[in-house]
Amino acid sequence: MSADHAAVQRTDFDQFMVPNYAPAAFIPVRGEGARVWDQDGRELIDFGGGIAVNCLGHAHPALVKALTEQAQKLWHVSNVFTNEPALRLARKLVEATFAERVFFCNSGAEANEAAFKLARRYAHDVHGAEKFEIISAVNSFHGRTIFTVNVGGQPKYSDGFGPRPEGISHVPYNDLAALEAAISEKTCAVVLEPIQGESGVLPADKAYLEGARRLCDQYGALLIFDEVQTGVGRTGELYAYQYFGVTPDILSSAKGLGGGFPIGAILTTSAIASHFGVGVHGTTYGGNPLGCAVGSAVLDVVNTPQVLAGIKSRHQRFKSELERIGQQYGLFEKVRGAGLLIGAVLAPAWKGRAKDIQQAAEQDGVLVLQAGPDVIRLAPSLVISDAEMTEGLGRFERAAARLAKS
Predict the structure, then answer these.
(1) What global pTM score does this model have?
(2) Which among 121, 160, 281, 304 is least surrounded, fewest beta carbons within 10 Å?
(3) Catalytic annotation on 141?
(4) Neighbour-count burial of 247, counting CB atoms closer than 10 A to its CB (0-12 exposed, 13-18 middle, 19+ buried)
(5) Is 3.90.1150.10 the CATH number for 3-59+305-405?
(6) Segments of the chain assigned to CATH 3.40.640.10
(7) Catalytic pick from 47, 141, 244, 276?
(8) Active-site hit among 46, 226, 249, 364
(9) What count of Cα atoms within 13 Å lies in the side-chain half-sphere of residue 293?
(10) Tell me: the pLDDT tens digits for 237-289?
(11) 249 marked ligand binding residue
(12) Structure-derived torsion over alpha carbons of residues 294, 299, 302, 305, reported in degrees to the nearest 10
């Protein structure tokens, strides 16, 4: 171990960091493709992808090139100016989607915050001050700001932070009758994840999203899709709204958009965007040249027929292998999701043990995620190689076999 690595240890987290995370016992220090190495040189296959962020794996040459080239030119100019990378990325997003306008920020929470603010501002300007209510889904996740955490339908994340913003309600996911009963002339927006990520990789029914679109049109509300986790090729389409064939009014994007570099965005129409006039909303770092240069390189790689088709074929392989492993060891009752956002739902005998399985997998050299206590989530690189898939699935099967015997 080099002196540099020896100088920083996992125990330093407990000594210096706010204790809001419980990180693994090892520290990753290097990555390449779908592999990472820790301080001791141990190699692990990464099926977690930084929680659906490292969409092109680690140290992808196109992203390294984009970042280093931009780093030698211009890092930050503030929003007193625009910059070339931001304009390039905005144009690419508009050309590839329903959107006519783009707003850049730094994270998914900021993207959702902007989406919710824009929806309320639009309703205020067009319909009046009474139309401000937001309907979201139970068990949804939209970020950690006071506003977004309360729009998210998980009280464990929103309790204990003082008074809640008013005008937010939650209905069961995939229940169109419940949404129809809740929506009214006061509703300014309905916010949905096309696939609920954090709470179990639960896809929406196409008919549910179509019904939500119809109800929003009927009541003059905006339909917002939170595509922070499902966007940028994750489902095998560039965005999940294209996978389901239902177009929102506002779409939030982050995670995979920067391939690991922090960037977020909202996509919307010109008519809606016009309500964010000069000074109405802003961000210091949003649209910074480094993030936008990387995001542009991400889109150039991901938004191609070959890569998108490859995501769908990789989905089939992961699904069939996980179903086989699940049946052989009595581990999973079903495997669901789309593209390379996959949820393996634990069988009744294993309920609540996702953390145990995650830790066992890590001991066998493969990184997987949880989506709640009952679902193992995979969100690997969209361009993960056959060899990396084979090796990682083999390691996961060894962990499953070992657990099943214990």
Answers:
(1) 0.96
(2) 160
(3) yes
(4) middle
(5) yes
(6) 74-302
(7) 141
(8) 226
(9) 20
(10) 999 999 999 999 999 999 999 999 999 999 999 999 999 999 999 999 999 99
(11) no
(12) -160
